[in-house]
Amino acid sequence: SKQAPTRLAMMITPAPAGTEPRPTSLKSRLVALLPLAFLLSAALAGAGLVVHQAAKLFAGSSPEEKWNLGDLGLCRAEGASCHVWDCCGVNGELKPMWCNPFASGQIGSIGKARCVVCEEGVETAKEEWKVFGTNLGGWLVLEPWITPSLFYQFLSVDRKFGKEAPAHTGMDTYTFCAALGPKEGNKQLRRHWASWVREEDVRAIAQSGATVVRIPVGDWMYVPYEPYIGCTDGSLEELERALALLRKYGLRALLDVHAMQGSQNGFDNSGQALRVKWTQVSAQDPEAVTTFEHWPQRAADWLAPYDNAKGAYPPEMNKTAYDRSLDVIRKLAERHRGDATVWGVEPVNEPWQMYPTEWIKQFYWDAYHITREAAKDWKFVMHDSFRGYPAEWWGFMKGCPNKAMDSHIYQAWANPMIAKGFFDAACGMAGGLRTMEEQLDMPMIVGEWSLATDNCAMWLNGLNDNLPGYPKVSCAMVPCPEPYMGEQPGAPPDAEAPLQGPYGTGVSGPMFGKCPVGMPWGTQENETMSRLANRYFKSFSAGHGWFFWNFRTELEPRWSYLEAWRLGWFQKNVSDYTSDAVQGACDEEPPAAVAKPIVSVEAVFDAATAETPLGDVRLEGAAAPVAAAVCVAAMLAATTFAFRTWRLHAAPPEPDEYQELAGHTKG
């Protein structure tokens, strides 16, 4: 509402001259308690923070392992020690946020703690470099929604094969190779690779002002395994072709391990969507229909099998899987370390937030040293595991050179809003990036983002599937394009056919030759996209740069870097973050008639502590009980925070408590 909220308005007015003080009412007494309530809640919150840091410092990683600081302030744990400047500051000055123990010794267990900081003491967040570019997604790691022409051939397999449909359905790189076999799969992939990333695309990316390109790769390219053996032969040579093109046009590359064996997040973009459950459903017809479910039991088994029933991982990682993943990083670094085109490596993309943080940190720490040993000048970029808040990363890799953190920011999954809602949200993203950089000394990169404001892109949430409740708007339908690679089985889809199976739990797919795409912003589409893009550019300049997802798509311009640039949604030089259009983007059209409280907090304190009678203070409507309730809630929250912090660090939580905490922090 653009009108001031009168029911909760708080007003302070003097008593008329010559009047007797009114008897103290319940409302006025509540007002008198406001300053005390505010001060008490602040004190409790401060106490909670003190308990939080003290517990982290002294509790250790298990009840049996307490930190021993010693006379000189050495940061020590049983069986391991660190230099004083590593963990506990200089000359014994305690800096508990620098002490970051996590599992070592036996992999995956809470064992001996070890330091995860570097002696160099480099303040990386203060470095002035920035990167601007896009992703070569849907190329070496397949995603059906990016290149649907490659996957139309799997429509109607439920009718063709019935119960055997799962063995003939490709919905990611893994099942694509499994369904087609090594010979036919490799034939189609070679045609796809050559047609999807072309020299003209790389040249246009360079002309747009980009500086670095993020290239998703699969782990099978460096440590082959079934069903990729034979099917993906030639993928490394294709990567070398792309690196040569980048070199030719003055661009550099971030090699992003987008897919790990067992799937690090359960998405199709991890190489294999987990866990897809195929069922036979019969309504009234005697013949059952083959359908599948993914989202209700999605999981990720990269470092250990996830127990859907318990909602938790086992206590220990799979050592074989862990060592194999490090071997992938080792072989990648050894193969490309002599190529100056390579700017850095991202050891794993989007690891699921349900993994214990200690597992992710341990993998990053070990992969970092493998990378430094082979190519010490590469940037080491770590995805935040969907936990992009400082408390999760305190002190991690403090002082280590050539590091950065990657956060993926999308509004495509947001609830429907007017354009201004998306604009404001885009402008508000700068604060989180700035906080991470300042508090963690961690350069922040937005490794994926787009201009999409809805979830309409066909198969965005999986082949012939969708998240429950999505899309939340009515999508536009456009003619499905001709296949980008020329001749291709099943492409384009049959113009006479309705929605075809196999069906997932949601609806998304071609119908009568038309494909769903994002709903345009009417006659304001170009202006809306341009204004939104400049706001993103402005916010992301608070960090160390960005990579747009994706460089191109078959259907969706809001997900296509090159199309957005050609349409003028992006400024001519995308790396010019100091331009007037970018710097002034979030200053445009300040909101009118913002509701403001009629009185300040200072006025409340002044009134409550003044010598004038309490009767001189008057609250209108329901302000008094609401204000009191807010203060009581604040005190309870502060007390709970202090207790939960002590409980968390004084003794390790039980598995169900880990799950509860993960549920709270997920959003």
Summarize the structure.
With 667 residues, this protein is α/β, with parallel strands linked by helices. Helices cover 33% and strands 10% of the residues.
Q: Which terms would index this structure?
A:
667 residues; alpha/beta; disordered C terminus
Structural account:
With 667 residues, the protein is an alpha/beta fold. It has 16 helices and 14 strands. The strands form 4 sheets. It has an 8-stranded parallel beta sheet, covered by helices on one side. Strand 6 and strand 7 form a beta hairpin. The chain is globular and about 70 Å long. The N terminus and C terminus are likely disordered.
Topology:
Blueprint: H1 26-59, E1 76-77, E2 80-81, H2 84-87, E3 131-135, H3 157-161, H4 173-196, H5 199-207, E4 212-218, H6 235-248, E5 252-259, E6 277-281, E7 289-293, H7 319-336, E8 342-346, H8 357-374, E9 379-383, E10 403-408, H9 419-427, H10 429-440, E11 444-448, E12 476-479, E13 514-517, H11 525-540, E14 545-548, H12 561-566, H13 580-583, H14 601-609, H15 623-650, H16 655-666
Parallel strand pairs: 3-4, 3-14, 4-5, 5-8, 8-9, 9-10, 10-11
Antiparallel strand pairs: 1-2, 6-7, 12-13
Helix pairs in contact: 1-14, 1-15, 7-8, 9-11, 10-11
